[in-house]
Each structure stands twice: as C-alpha cells, then as structure tokens.
Here is the input.
Amino acid sequence: MWRRLAIYFEKNPKMSKLIRWIEPSTYFLAFAWLLAMFVYASYYVIPLPDPNTIVYARLEQVVFGFGFNRLSLISTPVILLWGLGTLLLLFCGYRFQRTINHFITVYWGFLVEKKWLLAVLCVLAWIPFFLLRSNMISADMRIYMQWLPDQAGRNIVHVRFDEMWESNLHSSFYILANRLWGWSVPQSFQFVATLAGPVFLYLLVIFCQKILPVKAPFLFLLLISGGYMQLFFGDMEYYTLSLTLLLGYFLAALAYIRKDVPLEVPALILGIAMTFHMETAFLLPTLFYLSIFAFQRRTWSSLVFAWITLALTISLTLLFFTHNGADLINLRDTSWGLGRGGNMLANIIIPTVATLAARLNMLTVIYPLIWFLPLLIFFKRVALNELNGFLLIGAACGIPFSLVWISTIGFYSDWNLFSMPMFPAVILTGISFLDQRRLAYRKYLYILLISFSILVSYAWIINNHLRGNL
Amino acid sequence: MRSTRTFQLILLLTILEGIVALLGLISLPPSEEGNALVGGISFFRLGYLILVCIMLAGLAGLWIYTLMKPDWYQFQAERIRIWFFKHSFTSSAIIALIFAWIMGVGLLDLLLNPNLFPRAILYQYLYMRVRPVFLWLLITAVQFLILVYLERWFHPITLPSPPSGTPFGSLIGGGIITIVLTVNVILWLFYVRDPLSFQNRNAWLNGVFVFLGAALICGVGLRSISRKIRK
Here is the structure.
C-alpha cells in the first residue's frame, strides 16, 4: 500500500517533494524518540537496585529499565565529547563525503583482498577484547564455579545436553589452564570468549563484503554496534562459540544460495552449531528453506545427504559423550531446554506487562537499533530476495522465542541467552538499513544511528569491565 | 489441462477431516457450570466452534463451486503456478513455514503425551481443546504439500537441465557419508544392547569417533569440491 501511495505521489510533481520527506523524517523522528527514551530513563527514573528483580518494581522502572538507562553509566564529559564527535562526523559527511567514501572504499577493498592482513588485524582485535573483558558473574556462572572444579577433581566428564561441546570445551580448557597456570573458572571462561572474538570479526567482514560489497564497511559498523558484542568481551557463559558458528552457518547459507557450495555444507555447520548449543535448533526452519532450494534445483542427493549430515553430527556427538561416561537419561533429565526432566513446554511462558517490558529492555541491550525493524518492514525496505528470506525465517523464529522463552535468572543476566535468537533480526535490520537507494539524507541517518548505538552498547561493555562483581 | 479431481479429492478429505475435528470438539467434557452459556458450552468455546464451522462452510462452498465450475480451479491453479514461479523466495518461505508448522505440531503432540511426560498433564486442560483443530490443520498442511507436489507448482517453468552423471568426487563423498552413517547405526545398536559397557571410556573407540568426525567433514568437503569443479 505504501509503495503504491508513493508511486501515486511521485507522479504528482507537487507531492513528490513531500513524499521524499516522509520516510526519512519518520526514521529521524524514531531516532529522536529513542534518544528521548534513553535520556528520560537515564536521568529521570530511579533505577532498580537489581535489574533482574522486577516483582516489587514500579512499572515505570521496568519500562525505562536497564535497556534504556545506559546513558547514566557514562560521565558527562564523555557524552559531550560524543556529541561533538557526532557533529564533526555529520559535518564531514556533508563536506567531504566523496573523499571519505573514496578512502574507506580503497582501504576496505585492500583489507578484504589481502586476507592475511585482515586475519592479522582480527587477531590484534583480541587485545581490546581481552583488556575490556567482562567481570560480571551471572547466577549460572556461580554454579559453574562450583561444578567444574568438583567434577574435574573426580574425573567426571562435564557435558550438558543444552550445550554439549560448549560446556565440554570450556571445562577441558579450564582443567588445562588450571593445571598449567592456576587459572580460576571465570578466568578460563573469559579467555575462551575473547578467543572467539577475532574469528567472529573475520567472518563478519567476509559476510558483510559478500552481501553488500559497496557498503560493507558501514554494514560492519552497524552490526558491531550492538550490545551482543559483549559476548566476545570475555562473557562468562556458554554462548560465544555458538554465535561464531552461527555466523559461519549464515556464510555457508549465503554461499549455498549463490550456488557456491552444496547444501551439505550449511547443514554440517548447523549440525555442529547445534552440538555446541541446542538453542541454535531454532534455525532448523531456515534449513528447511534452503532444502526447498535444493528441491527447486533438483539436487536430490544433496538434499538427502544434507539432512543425514545434520543428524550424523548430533548423533555422533551424543555417542561420543555417552561413551565417555555421560548418561543419556541423565543428559535429558538435567537439560533446561527439555524441561529438566519434565516437559519442554514448561519453558514457554505467557508474558505479563512487566515481563514484556523487561524483555523489550533486554532486546534493546542486545541491539538498540532493533526498534527500527518494524519501520523498515512498514516502508518495504526489507528487500524480498533469497538471503532476506532466509533471515526473515530466522527472525520469525527467533523473535517469538525471545518473547516467550523462560528466563530463570532474570532478563538482565540472561541477555546472552537471547542474543543468538535475535541475531538473524540484527543482521536483517543492518542489511535493510543500508541496502536502499532513493532515501534522502541517509548518510546522516547512518552516522547518527551508528554513533549512538556504539555509545550506549560500548558504555555498557566498559561498565561491565569496570564495575563487575568478579 | 490440469486435473480438477485431485484438488476436489483433497478438498473433500480436508472437509471430512474437519468434520471429525468438529466432532472431537463437541465431544469434549462440558464447561464449568458458571461458564456454561448454552448446552454446557462456554462463550469462548462457542466462538471457537462457530469459527471452525465457518471454515468448514467456506471449504464446502469452495468444493461445490469447483464441482459446478471445474474451469475455475484450472485457471486459479495456473495463476498459483505463475505466482510460485515469479516469487520463488516467498513461495519457498511459505513452504518452509508449513514444514515448521508440521514439525511444531508433531513435536507438541509428542511433548504433551502424559504417558511419556507426566508433567504434560498440567497442560491437558488447554491442549485437549485445541488438539483436534491442530491435528486437522497439520493434516491439511500435509495435503497441501501433496497438492503442491502433484500440481508441480514448485517446479520452475524454465529450468536448465542439470548436467547428466554424477562427478566421481561427489560419489566418493556420498559413499563416505553413507559409511559413517552405517557405522553410526552399528554403534547405536551396541549402545542399546548394553548401555553400561558402552559407557566405559576406551581410547581406541574414541579414536574411531575422531575418525568418523573427520570422515564426515571429508565427505562433505569432497562433495563440495567436486561440485565447484563441475560448476
């Protein structure tokens, strides 16, 4: 409807000027609204002593909660500096756009061409990942701090059904690091998480380059501006390696859509991701979607072998851990995802107003710009192509999952659990923002959005490093 | 000329299954006295029944219409075929979501079986109300997929025929994956026969697992490489 209206107005010369204003104005207004929410939450609402506990809180404290009050984490001079920096960027965007674009394109192109240089830079990025590592310990981590040394002492293999390889590799690394250097459980978790960071960055650069070759640097910036990047800043949980594998799956899916690899490759990577964290099973419908391409391409053997490969990956992992002492019944009965010996449906809860508000805060923490996705869909900026279809299905499964799946330790601490399901939506938002023409003043919009998102997300990341409870 | 009979048959089956689902809903225990509006049926259940009846009436109307005007379906089928061809991405997404729906309802039916999961009894009060319609929609979804297949809506009109013959590398890759699958099945048989002895850590069997994992990756890699060469 909107597109038809736009065409009608564009045919009318008097109205064409007006129509050019409506869409960008909506985005700018949405940005102003988001900014106002952040300012109000940060300076006019008393924050909760514990953001995870919302039972006795006023609704206002929950609505304008931990997702929005992050400006209060930043000192005034830094905010002023950010404001000046953004103004400077806006001015540069206005005055030296061509020169800047030229420089970015040349250097980015050089970087992508010289893969070894890109790899070196990504490895160097490990330094900030490690230096700014999170010191926040969640309720889950407190349990692992008891379990891991105890199980290591008794020579019990540490594996949980929900996160088979993640839990086992973290545990094995802890045993090794503890013996060699005397590291504690949190230290070993932090280190493994920071190691995943460079791999994630490398894959992300390649992914951005493959999707939007011309605007890849901006897409890269837009995507790393989310709070989910905290995962690679030493987050002490079982999600870091899985998210890296998830990005690998997206890359493989893109390659499959472009006929560069057979369906077995994305199926294998998704299978591995599922053995790292079962939560990634929410992406199974996207493999169905890819299977339909195989059906259309009449690559029957590929279709069959892909699903066999996926099943084999999970099956062999289960057999391996069973052979090494993990009991299958015990794995099932201790799984949170499967309902802790009960029913999986126990994990699905209908949100109340307060919990929904807390969830929306959590989504804002994960990716502040997610709020623009409904607008992008409304203005039909989400292009209907094969990759977006893949991402749309991922988002259509991930967003409802994030809205109804239970959080047992509180939404503030469980942000990492919901980062993975939100990831397709995050990428879809980034692509839809950038993959568009004929949007007036878009460069200013990009500058504002990227700089604001980076400010609030990285302020939170730095705060977790400085004021953590480790 | 496309056959209307297949569509009519599937539609008729859907209607009959819908009637069974409706009977299933009617045979549910009556609502609590306080909630009962008429004949032991609450306001919400009445609305629910009316909704199912409207759906059934619509389907029946469509069935009768296709009996009266068989050409109408042929015209619509051609339009759907063209739509599927023009919107390969949207149609793929719809089919994927239908698969997800079938899988989801199947999983729900398994998880809500109190014999398997005793705690499922807590949800029976709700699930027994929606189950007949859910199962009906599941079967309808399967039938729709059969119709899509039979009508060849999903086959692109101008598809370059794939090169004949399978590359050697792809065959070897497929062979490796099949061998891994066979060994995997044998290992499961060993496990089922004697779980306790299987759980004893054993270095050589761990070596087998590493080998199988590597073989699986090699198999997929070989198929991938041979495809690239063919391309």
